[in-house]
Amino acid sequence: MEKEIRIYNYGFKELRTYLFVALFVLGNLLLPQLCHLIPNGGKILLPIYFFTLIASYKFGIKVGLMTAVLSPIINSILFGMPALAILPAILTKSVILAIAAAFIASKTNKISLMNLLAIILIYQVVGTLAEWAMTSSFYVAVQDFRIGIPGMLVQLLGCYFLLKLER
Q: What CA–CA distance (Å, rounded) separates 125 from 163?
């Protein structure tokens, strides 16, 4: 089922851009902390991508890319997660996610499970290939597909329902 939604695309000169970025980065700081209370919660639930997907889909490429870049960096600085060794792979996947979400949202102006599934598959497959190139380890690169399926499902369903809440 698809629902037409309003897509915003704020500019760099608008205060709203930075307020939304701050809000989504805060979400991407808090959600991983909650998930890390569960053993391997970060690896299983992939929380660092959740609010980046919403930011990019609803508020466009500028809010999405700033959220995608700032969230992992600030998390790494404040909490040591993601570890510096995997930060490039996380940043790569986050940026791919932001670009894919903003692009699909702008082309369809609809929220659907299929749109979100396409975004998740794009950022995971392309990100996995990039991570494999960075690490030279296929086993490490496919970790999200080995143990992160619950997180992808949370992204799919959670983001779908949050994006549908538009007033």
A: 23
Q: Is the peptide bond before 88 cis (omega within 30 degrees of 0)?
A: no
Residue 2: pLDDT band with limits 50, 70, 90:
confident
What is the pTM (predicted TM-score) of this model?
0.95
DSSP 6-47: ------TT-HHHHHHHHHHHHHHHHHHHHHTTSTTHHHHH-G
Q: Which domain holds residue 56?
A: 3-164
Residue 16 sits in a domain of what CATH number? 1.10.1760.20
The number of folded domains in the chain is: 1
Other beta carbons within 10 Å of 16: 12
